[in-house]
Design a protein that fits this description.
Layout (H helix, E strand, L loop, with lengths): L14 H8 L3 E6 L13 H15 L5 E6 L2 H6 L11 H24 L5 E6 L1 H5 L1 H16 L3 E6 L13 H11 L4 E6 L19 E2 L23 H13 L4 E5 L3 H6 L5 E3 L10 H6 L5 E5 L1 H8 L10 E6 L6 E5 L5 E6 L15 H8 L13 E3 L3
Parallel strand pairs: 1-2, 1-5, 2-4, 3-4, 5-7, 6-8, 9-11
Antiparallel strand pairs: 7-8, 9-10, 11-12, 12-13
Length: 388
């Protein structure tokens, strides 16, 4: 295990950050499978009710809205399908999700009904949210549910998502949803009460009350998946998700589900991640962190400078090579001549069309092939520069 962080890094956070938590108006809460189900699979009604008791109390406040990102669909479907553990293959995971998602939402519907609250199910894939129209529709649906007093319950659409369009874990999904709905706070709930400077089971390790930036986490062993064994995440995915949200201007509290009430009330619990950046533009955060590139374009040095430094669109003249089998509208990676990724974007041409366009001006292409070819290969509005 890594050694302890410095004393300054472990100092308790002051009052203002947690007051900001308590005053947050729109809050995204993510709960993991291990906090809702038994290790053998199947929902634990008492655990679900305990969580809803806390969330409903805060949803009833006139100054607060709650969006719930809930794992547990696959885990809930294990026992009904006679599966002893989470399957490895995608087909059986999707089958378990198909059964479990209905059970999960039914349980939430019944539990929130005790407080007169309606529930709205929202299932997403990364493909739904990196494309402009889909992104806007997802926001409108979530915003309207909140305006009508419902509690959105968000999950990945595991029943149809393929390996290429999966978020990979709901921690990442929650960070992106927090950005999508313009949340003031993200709360990540699991079976661990915060981030520690080593294995929490090892004597002498200490909880880290606050994180001010990625540099503070250098040398800390974040660990692996939780003990329940029914989810896909672990502390690694939670810290990564916290980094995504904080980097987009959303503060994060990471703690255990049993401390949900303290976390939402702004009391000193878990680990508080300070915002480290500004809110990104629209769906570009999704494009950077949720999309899986279906191909790659190699840029010459001039095109790299134009895209990275001047933030311009990518034109055919600056492309030196094409890899992969993609269609117009798919996400692709933009690389320099050394093969290093510099950006990601939604391409406007199929892979089979591009080779004859490379190195040529849009004016020349329009004259030869028609006005449809006088356009960018990747428009700057559909392009995000990756951090080095």
């Amino acid at each position: 295990m890594a050694g302890a962080a410095s004393g300054g890094a472990l100092a308790e956070s002051g009052g203002p950050p947690r007051r900001a938590v308590a005053e947050a108006r729109r809050v995204v809460v993510k709960v993991g499978s291990s906090s809702l189900t038994t290790a053998a699979g199947g929902l634990d009604a008492d655990r679900v009710d305990a969580l809803v008791d806390v969330l409903a109390q805060h949803a009833d406040r006139p100054d607060r809205e709650i969006v719930l990102v809930s794992s547990g669909a696959i885990a809930a479907g294990l026992a009904p399908l006679g599966l002893a553990k989470r399957p490895r293959d995608l087909a059986r995971q999707q089958a378990a999700a198909s059964v479990g998602q209905g059970l999960l939402v039914a349980r939430y519907t019944a539990s929130f009904a005790r407080y007169g609250r309606r529930v709205g199910q929202v299932l997403l894939t990364s493909d739904d949210t990196s494309r402009r129209a889909h992104y806007r529709n997802a926001y409108r649906t979530l915003d309207q549910l909140l305006a009508m007093g419902a509690v959105p319950v968000v999950n990945e659409n595991d029943t149809v998502a393929t390996d290429e369009i999966r978020f990979g874990d709901n921690d990442r999904l929650a960070a992106l949803v927090a950005h999508l709905v313009r949340a003031d706070l993200l709360v990540l709930l699991s079976d661990v009460d915060g981030l520690y400077d080593g294995n929490p089971a090892t004597p002498g390790t200490r909880r880290i009350p606050e994180v001010r930036g990625p540099a503070q986490l250098e040398g800390i062993d974040i660990g692996s998946a939780g003990s329940a064994g029914v989810g896909t995440g672990g502390m690694v995915t939670k810290v990564e998700a916290a980094g995504i949200a904080a980097g987009a201007g959303v503060p994060v509290v990471l703690t255990s589900a049993v401390h949900a009430a303290d976390a939402l009330a702004g009391r000193e619990t878990g680990t508080y991640f300070h915002p480290t950046g500004r809110r990104a533009a629209g769906r570009l955060l999704w494009l950077a962190h949720a999309s899986a590139p279906t191909g790659a374009l190699t840029l010459d040095e001039g095109a790299v400078r134009a895209v990275v430094e001047r933030r311009t669109s990518l034109l055919p003249a600056g492309i030196a090579g094409v890899e992969g089998d993609f269609s117009a509208g798919d996400p692709v990676e933009l690389r320099d001549t050394g093969g290093r990724p510099v950006a990601r974007g939604l391409v406007n041409f199929d892979a089979r069309e591009l080779p004859r366009l490379l190195g040529r001006s849009t004016r020349e292409l329009a004259q030869e092939l028609g006005p449809a070819y006088e356009r960018e290969v990747v428009h700057r509005d559909d392009l995000v520069v990756l951090r080095p």
